[in-house]
Amino acid sequence: MEGDKSSGAGAGGLVLLNCFVSPFGNRVRIALKRKGLAYEEKHENLAPKSPLLLSSNPVHAKVPVLLVGGSPVCESLVILEFVDEAFAGNGEPLLPAAPCARAHARFWASYVDSKLPECAVRVWRSPKGAAAVEEGRKDLVAVLKTLEAELGAKPYFAGDALGYVDVALVPFAPWFLTYERLGGFSVAGECPALAAWAERCVRENECVAKSLPEAEDVFQFVCGMRKMLGLD
């Protein structure tokens, strides 16, 4: 699978190890496309994991991994900051320039990772009707409402343009349909401003639109996972 072949390409020999539904890996896709960097993308299955992935990320054995001239950079938020720093001359920056604004962005990206995935997993990896589904739904809605409050009336989390927090969060948007169908709620109904923000990110930013899977494809992937786990 080939990535964007636009400017500055071969610099560093970039290879992204990713799974097409991974919000974490798709963050990196957005960042690379936003910077106009050429890269090769290698698809990873959840099992068995490739020898390349296991040798590149022996601690967590998870995607994403960005190989830069063969050297691995692991963990999606770390990779975003690496791309922003290593290719500062390409495209628009992800993080703001002011130290306080950078710290603020890092806080909210960390909040996304510390809260959203754990709640979401309880919704989609629990048996139908289990108490964990309802508990996960309540916690997930609370997290989304907290993020919506931080967004406020701004078009994007940092203001008028796509930035670090947007890139960290928007890859979860294709999963909203799965959360809704398995959790029995509507993201747009609970968090209309956040739903509108997700649509805006895709509509106004080609780097986002070209980096995210279709919501229905994510749902079908999850249905396959649930069958494999004996949940359906």
From TrEMBL:
Residues 98-221 form the GST C-terminal domain. It is an enzyme of class 2 (transferase). PANTHER family: GLUTATHIONE S-TRANSFERASE, GLUTATHIONE S-TRANSFERASE, GST, SUPERFAMILY, GST DOMAIN CONTAINING. It catalyses: RX + glutathione = an S-substituted glutathione + a halide anion + H(+). Keywords: Cytoplasm, Transferase. This is Glutathione S-transferase. GO terms for cellular component: cytoplasm; cytosol. Residues 12-91 form the GST N-terminal domain. Transmembrane segments: none annotated. It comes from Setaria italica. Belongs to the GST superfamily. CDD domains: GST_C_Tau, GST_N_Tau. Is involved in the conjugation of reduced glutathione to a wide number of exogenous and endogenous hydrophobic electrophiles. It comes from the Eukaryota. GO terms for biological process: glutathione metabolic process. GO terms for molecular function: glutathione transferase activity. Its EC number is 2.5.1.18. It is found in: Cytoplasm, Cytosol.
